Amino acid sequence: MKLKVNKMQSSGNKNSKKLAGKITRRSFFKYMGAGFATYMVWSDVLVASALSTNENPTAFPDQDLIGSWIHISPIGQITVFTGKVEIGQNIRTSLSQVVAEELSVRPDAINMVMGDTALTPYDRGTYGSLTTLQISPILRIMAANLRHLLMEEAKKTWGIASSNLMLKGGMVIDPKTNKKLGFGDLVNGKSLLKKVDNNIKPIAPEKWKIAGQSISKINGRDFITGKHRYVSDLVLPGMVFGRVLRPPFYGAKLLSVDTSAAEKIPSVEVVKDGDFIGVTAASTLTAAVALALIDSTWEQSPTTERSELFEQLVKSASEKKKVNKEVKIAYDRGDIKINQRFEIDYIAHVPLETRASLASWDKGYLEVWAGTQRPFGLHEELQKSFDLAVDKIRVHVPDTGSGYGGKQTSEVGLEAARLSKHVGKPVKVCWTREEEFKWAYFRPAGVVELKASLTNGKVSSWEFHNYNSGSAGIDFPYTSANKHLEYHRSSSPLRQGSYRALSSTANVFAMESMVNDLAIESCEDPVQFRLKNLENPRLKAVIKAAAQSFEWGRLKNQENIGHGMACGTVKGGFVATFVEVEVAQPSRELIIRNVVTAFECGVIINPRHLESQVTGCVLQGLGGALFEEVDFKEGKLTNASLISYRVPRFSDVPKMKVILLDRKDLPSSGAGEAPIVCIAPALRNAIDDASGVKLYNLPMLPSGTVPDNT
Fold this sequence. Notes:
Layout: H1 25-32, E1 37-39, E2 69-72, E3 78-82, H2 91-103, E4 110-114, H3 131-158, E5 166-168, E6 171-174, E7 179-182, H4 183-187, E8 193-195, H5 220-225, E9 240-244, E10 253-258, H6 260-263, E11 269-273, E12 276-281, H7 284-292, E13 295-299, H8 309-315, H9 325-332, E14 336-344, E15 356-362, E16 365-370, H10 375-386, E17 393-396, H11 411-423, E18 427-430, H12 433-439, E19 446-455, E20 458-467, E21 483-488, H13 504-521, H14 526-533, H15 537-550, E22 561-570, E23 573-583, E24 590-600, H16 607-626, E25 632-633, E26 636-637, E27 656-661, H17 679-691, E28 697-698
Parallel strand pairs: 1-8, 3-4, 9-18, 14-28, 16-17, 20-21, 24-27
Antiparallel strand pairs: 1-2, 2-3, 5-6, 6-7, 9-12, 10-13, 11-12, 14-19, 15-16, 15-18, 19-20, 22-23, 23-24, 25-26
Helix pairs in contact: 2-3, 13-17, 16-17
């Protein structure tokens, strides 16, 4: 029997097939053929309910606590399952590498099934730089166990000690006789389910031959040629396109609606479900026209204006400042004292692919394709919204066009499913760029109030208060006898949520700006000042590596040239960024001449792609550092387009160098977030060095020029 899979037609493919759907992990393995499967308990994974089925419950045992799975089919196909999703960070390649290393196969010989709620283990979501940190070790130990089982099976077949055998290219080989057995031959007709033995160790990084190498993206050619289909490209037979009525301003309440004009358009169906109003049509243009013809009236609630934002965030804090006496006394006694406030604007994620989802109902079974970072989160929301059994829903996440923390919510999947249920057809909903700006969530705005003092050249007090933007990155890595760190929750006038590195960008900006100012006030070199006040050897190592490459301390041939640096540690990553800038005269335009970033996150799985992650972080960080800001007035976003919302362009890309420190003695950590946190303070400190202007807001240069402090 052949396994049926769901066939999508691309935009130009007319030879589409009907949905097969309704696959459970048990039936999937049954159709693939018997083979090895290994599992381990992973304590950090929350467990979903077991998928119900009428099949024999012993055919493929779903455990209550599942880590991840590897399967080998009778023809030797290796399939790896993970609930994580690929949104541009290239974990499909790096996870394939660690499995390929243990099994001595090419990474592209591995079929990686990701983010399919019917086939993969439960996963809370792809965020927080956790994939490499958590999933990579699981897959390594599972693959190591599978390698051991294959060797033991060959040993039984040949009567040869497994220590004399080797694995290569999907074969177990006896080097003395050159006898070979394919992985499929060893598992064909057998079902050897084994719990992971933690005493079987994966291959040490010092001996890696496949992991640790700069191989190309496994399915990269599909993206370059356009063969890959994002959710926004997918088409199902009989599919229609959906649009949803949105309020004209934040906090609005729907009072009345007239859909009669839209209902007169051929092919248009109007869906009314309480305050949810949507349309479907045979084309996106027709759906947009129908939506525009809906006449609605709304009640507007009072909103906070942008000019009042920062005072509102401080004023609405749930808890007021509580500072211990020792910190106050140490501050008062300091030789050098600085008291400063920093203000951080909202910024948008601006993913390349806007939110998109395709939903289809078939006899009470709901199947959804969505570009989301949390497929199981969407699955749970659908289950609650439609009161469905857990095995009546399947969510797929095709490799998705970026997220940056902005696709953790489920709204577009719910919208598509809601419209599809009402019209009885598959429905695709793709948010417009304007909708993505207005109705997604933003990186939180915030206020940081910071007081610090030096006594005898050492940090003697550190008082740090963050309002609203968050506690990530708030930890003070420098030595200080007295410190107080506090995050104050506030009432946000705009919808806010996760963003790459969370609030670390705001907190490290304030921290590294203040540390630099303390160094300057004490007439010390900023690099030496940091090294003197740091104890963490990993953070010191990246500072020294970047400083050496940057040639810190070299003479500058112009007064308007500035050098700046910053360092930080976030989510297991250690980063230092050094910057050279020029403040052009007389225009005051900022020219970024050179950026050097050193980064360390343990042992490196793929150097080429790690360098790309670091580069991407730094370039994205330029936007939030210099010009990205969400502007709003009277409850409306006023810069909801790429014409009015400034993001980094090719012309903004400076000369860059990335230095990677490979620590084979340490486990791998994620790299999608930490490298972004230092570019803003490094730029700020370089601008100060070039012009004598100290900046305390993000973005620093919304007008595009450095202010004149005269």
